[in-house]
Amino acid sequence: MRIGRIAANGCAVCACVVCVYAAQRTMSQTANLAAATPMILEKNEGERRVWRGEPGHAGPGAAFILKVDPKNGGSSHLVFGTGDLAPGEKIGSHTHPTADEILLLETGTARVHLGDSGREVHDGATLFIPAGTSISVSNIGRDVVHVLFIFSAPGFEEFMRDASVREGEKNVPLSKDEDNQIQKKHLHDVIYIEP
Questions:
Q1: What is the pLDDT at residue 149?
Q2: Can you give the pTM of this predicted structure?
Q3: For residue range 37-92, what is the model confidence (pLDDT) as tens digits?
């Protein structure tokens, strides 16, 4: 292969496979950015949903809001939302195999198990959960635990949609069979370790 002159960015100006691939990838990323829509959302704005879960496990009726993802704003790179855990409710132990997660507890007191460690955390606590790390959160206080969640890659939000209904829609708790089907469908996004 013959390499042409060196461009200002250090890349050889040529038609080699690597340069063509890099140019196509850059154009694709630019197209994705163009498809994204800037948004300004107030605290309670976004895609408001309600879990169809079992009592004591963030539902049924526990609310969350998907704010930014591929369907809300067109982000191809991340997912952002908010949710509440009433006193006594919990998010069961699970992992996200392909995405890092950040949880920020805005209010309340919770018991968190992250990997091999556990501790009590309070409003303002930040949790970084690398992909594949187990996480569980239990509201051990008297107040609602309000969390912000961010995922480094889309995927889990589709599990959330499948296991919930839009706010105001009829909410029937998931049957065991429905729950198993949803979990099987989303094994690449979430694996629950405890029921």
A1: 98
A2: 0.79
A3: 999 999 999 999 999 965 445 555 688 999 999 999 999 999 999 999 999 999 99
Per residue in 61-74, pLDDT (tens digit) is: 688 999 999 999 99
C-alpha triplet 138, 142, 147: angle, nearest 5°: 50
Q: Do 167 and 122 touch, CB atoms closer than 8 A?
A: no
State the DSSP code for 69: B
The pair phi, psi for residue 131, each rounded to 5°, is: -50, 135
Any idea where the domains of the chain sit in the sequence? 1-35, 47-192
Q: How many Cα atoms within 13 Å fall on the side-chain side of residue 60?
A: 15
One CATH from 2.60.120.10, 3.30.70.940, 3.90.740.10, 3.40.50.150 for 47-192: 2.60.120.10
The amino acid that residue 58 corresponds to is A
**How many CB atoms neighbour CB 108 within 10 A?**
22
